[in-house]
Amino acid sequence: MMMMFMMMIMIMMMIMIMIIMIIIMIMMMMMMMIIMIMMMIMIMIMIIMIMIMIIIIIIIIIIIIIIIIIIIIIIIIIIIIITTTTIIIIIITTTTTTKSLSPPPSSSSLSSSSPSPLPPQ
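The structure assignment produced for this chain is given below.
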């Protein structure tokens, strides 16, 4: 009888130990799951941060490219303006030289008309 009681106590103790072990295992698993979830969340946050950084870098590169394009366009416009002004200046100088060339006939006509007023003088 005593032996049976001892056996029962032993079995009960074993069951209790098993239950405690199972509970500890479940707790450990839960902790592991929580840690894994936290790690996943951290990894996701890191990925999101990296994506945001990449997007910011891309935006900065695009802005720099746009600025460079604008500068190039401005330089091209300035060059075009300079060339047009030089062409206009050249045209003006050629017209003035033709005008200054054209006056000699008029001056010669003046000189021809000048002898006529000379006799009365």
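Interim note for the steering committee: The two ends are 173 Å apart (CA to CA). The helical segments are 2-101, 103-113.
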